[in-house]
Known about the structure:
There is one protein chain. The chain is an alpha/beta fold. It has 18 helices and 31 strands. Helix 1 (about 5-15) crosses helix 2. Adenosine monophosphate (AMP) binds near residues 366, 367, 391, 392 and 479.
Amino acid sequence: MSRYEETYLNSIKNPEEFWADAAEDIFWYKKWDTVLDNSNPPFYRWFAGGQVNTCYNALDRHVDVHGAGENLALIYDSPITGTSSKYTYSELRDVVSNFAGGLTNMGIKKGDRVLIYMPMIPETLIAMLACCRIGAIHSVVFGGFAAPELATRIDDAEPIAVIAGSCGIEPGRVVPYKPLLDQAIAISKHKPTQCIIFQRNAGPASMIAGRDIDWMDVMSKGYPQECVPLSATDPLYILYTSGTTGVPKGIVRDNAGHMVALKWSMTNTYDTHPGEVYWAASDVGWVVGHSYIVYAPLLQGCTTVIYEGKPVGTPDAGAFWRVISDHNVKTMFTAPTALRAIKREDPNAKLLERYDLSQFKSLFLAGERADPDTMEWAHQHLNVPIVDHWWQTETGWSITGNFLGLGALPIRFGSSTKPAPGFKLEVLDENTSPLPPGEIGALSIKLPMPPGCLPTLWKNDEGYVSSYLKEFPGYYQTGDAGYIDEDGYVWVMTRTDDIINVAGHRLSTGGIEEVLASHSAVAECAVMGVADPLKGQIPIGLLVLKAGINKPDGEITAEAVQMVRGSIGPVASFKTAVIVKRLPKTRSGKILRGTMRNIADGQPYEIPATIDEPASLEEIAQDLRSAGYPAK
Ligand code: COA
Ligand code: AMP
């Protein structure tokens, strides 16, 4: 039996012992009363009764207990601004503790929500850690979202304060964040009373007297603030993610279970240890950024890298290799789309020859299924294990993976290998019956899930149950379909709902449809994710117009594209709307999105027996052909 199998079986047979043992690896003000509180199913709580502080474990402990204060905690590398900086653990602890003092000075305290809307700069991480130092619950919003998305999150989380950067910087343009924040607060029902603004030289913001406070002022009024002991089960953060409607779901993360799972993963999944450099080339606005730019590397005493740049164009397709080489990165984590972007510009990886990657040991991929071609290309050129691992905002760490710290399992391109400890993964049919190996069904996790996974949705226990636990009683429904093969390898194939993955970013087609449907000329619409060689999928919108509209089609489609950009944000990558005569439907009125997607992708499709008017499919195929689908 491999070390992986032994560990996995142990975690399933004796979950409480397994996680209690892993929990010895973090510092507790007070140990738990119960490892797993299962007194109120389906709501499970790990380490109930314990007291911890995540910031203490991420910073102070390394300085005060491990004598690692002079080790590097953070490297900021920003090709987009041509700047870089470094913080040791002592320096980072001091600045975080001072900022936490500044927040306390403003009256922010345990349990208050603080929304963070910032670019990829060290201050974002400082803001997050300062919140968790005092027990304020942060909610970070990705900078590529527009004001209405920000407003929805403000209304749900009801933050007392917002911490924002004055701007983000994208290749070739400055994105002013502050006007988006002002607009969001103008349209939200809940009004945060204090906004801390970090002014950036590239795009300083004008301030609103009485509400806005300069980051520097908060710092100057700050003082060293000790970590506040929190309940193990207190929320650490809320992170919103796309659901099946336009209203995002507020994923809640607790303190202790999160720390225990992440720390376990650093040693066993990533095989990365104190003093080593770990780089997740994601954005702090996503779960990967929360878990593996901020919390996990610091909990493990590693050096984390905040990279403000792109895989290509900042300045070239060698950017990732330059960062790995400059900072001696041992372990890297990115999305397959980033590798596809590099491969497209530098197919033979010529730029790799400029850099010394001798310290580089493994590359982890997630965010979307890693296609075998990309994995093979990366393996051929980098010659390190290329590990696809599958996870979600909800789980906070990987559901499956290849656990390099337990001895790597043979890699099968296209599979995300095997379940992580604690995840009882099963493939179910529509009657909640487990399917045999090789058969595709709903990938589902038997309850309770291991530490680190969402305990519920923010202020929405009911939504948690109806979104995830209702369809398959006793299981968490991942929303992904796939199969487990004879050897236990997991193959994640597709979503079962209307969520699509665009450049590793999760989007709801339902959310985009809600925006399109609000166009005054649109009678009906459907959005689907079509295959894209770079981004994996991109959304396209099919619009049926109301009768008697005499605006030119081009004007309507351009307005539709602009509306999605203005309502959801540039991150939606919504560039194509096509006007069609009608949408094919079943007799019960369900739009045949899957069939239309197959047509747009040039894939074989069957005409469903339940179709209302078979001729509508041929019409759609014609409309799509005129719009350039399937792409050549
Ligand atoms: N703030 C403001 N705007 C942002 C933004 C941010 N933080 N991040 C992205 N955008 C904008 C981009 O400028 C772009 O705008 P445009 O339509 O005006 O060009 C749009 O959102 C789409 O951005 P992106 O998806 O990044 O596409 P791209 O074409 O600029 O770059 C890739 C393509 C593949 C290089 C890029 O998507 C990438 O690096 N992906 C990796 C994703 C990743 O790490 N995901 C995390 C999951 S692990
Ligand atoms: P997010 O919550 O943004 O991390 O998106 C989670 C979704 O992305 C999952 O439910 C999957 O659909 C998809 N996903 C993430 N990682 C993988 C992977 N390694 N393989 C297949 N799909 C993935």
